[in-house]
Amino acid sequence: MEQTVISCKQCVMDSIGNPEIRLDAQGICNYCHEYREKEAIRLLKSPEREKALNALVARIKKAGEGKPYDCLIGVSGGVDSTFTAYFVKKLGLRPLAVHFDNGWNSELAVHNIQKVLENLDIDLFTYVVNWNEFKDLQMSFLKASTPDGEIPTDHAILATLYQVAGKHNIKFIMSGNNFKTEGIMPRLWAYGHIDWAYIRGIHKKFGTKKLKTFPHFTLTRFLWYTLVKRVKMISILNYMDYDKDEAMRVLLEELNWQYYGGKHYESNYTKFYQGIILPQKFHIDKRKIHLSALILAGQLSREEALSELEKPIYPLGKIDEDKEYVCKKFGISAEELEKIMSDSPKTFMDYPNSYGLHQKFRNILLTLRKKKLLYS
Fold it and tell me: Which H helix or E strand runs over 125?
């Protein structure tokens, strides 16, 4: 029997592929309420925001005195990370850019990174992952049949940033993550980017190679970086009135940056995973979370978002070609990919994880933010 689709009246979140959505008496979903609650904590209003930004910049410059760099930035070639590089330079900081090359970069991503960093006069360090190890880990997540197949990349990026910061004694990492446009994420869609027990558990069950060089960290190691080494991860775009369209205009006009056609589509794998695997296997359209966040940020109307969702999620005529490319890259047959696509969906809760511990840690951070003892 076909179930009735539950849809939020304020954003474009619904129950398709998302069993944890809840609506209140007015038809507003739990994600909207969570966004507003966290918005009050994560985002400062002007002029308090400008005061906090000036104080932060002063701290970063002081901590970087006598060093070649005073902060790190992670770069992927996408909108948020590229604008972060632009904004950090505008603030008069001296960043070192770090790029994690997982073997799936599009040619346009490589071109954008090189062109933008040259224009901004920012040095670049690129970590090239061991492809055989990383491929084995990505295949493990595909075989695990969970919707969070991008977790290995997200985890390794964070680990690489902290390792580089520790090596160069850099105290601040400027993240492109921002609450305004990324403040919504269903728990079952993308859990685990800092849960090494979960990542290791899936690889232990489905992997075939040892992860000898894969960048990773435990919660204990994370606390060591933050409490002992005093490395701070700063969502710098939360310190401004970040507008996605305006950011793209600036990048296009001032840095000759080129758009990819979708969020995180600078990665060939992300494009394939979000555009084919998630909607076809899990009935998940990640455009909904990004568009919903833009609605709540006042940067898009619900009608505009619904119109955007009417468009094809993947470039027409490219599906078969890109499936062939992914199969060849992984060294699997089309039949093996179809087997993966037909396996019953699971979630992180079907595998060993440290969810309870990490939730306690997140609650501590939330409490600190509420008491204004921690920001960003």
Answer: strand 123-128
Total Cβ atoms within 10 A of residue 157: 21
DSSP alpha helix (H) spans, 145-214: 151-168, 179-182, 196-206
Evaluate the CA torsion angle 260, 262, 266, 272 in order and state its sign: negative
Q: Is 52 within a domain?
A: yes
Q: Hey, what are 275's tokens?
A: 């555009």
pTM value is 0.93
Read off the pLDDT of residues 327-348 as tens digits, 9 standing for 90 and up.
999 999 999 999 999 999 999 9
Do 183 and 292 touch, CB atoms closer than 8 A? no
d(CA 124, CA 117): 8
- CATH number of domain containing 359: 3.40.50.620
How many distinct structural domains can be found in the chain? 1
Give the pLDDT mean for 235-255.
95
Nearest one of 178, 197, 222 to 362, comparing CA atoms: 222
Residue 8 lies in a domain: no
Q: Closest Cα to residue 98, out of 192, 190, 148, 168?
A: 168
Domain that holds residue 72: 45-265+346-370
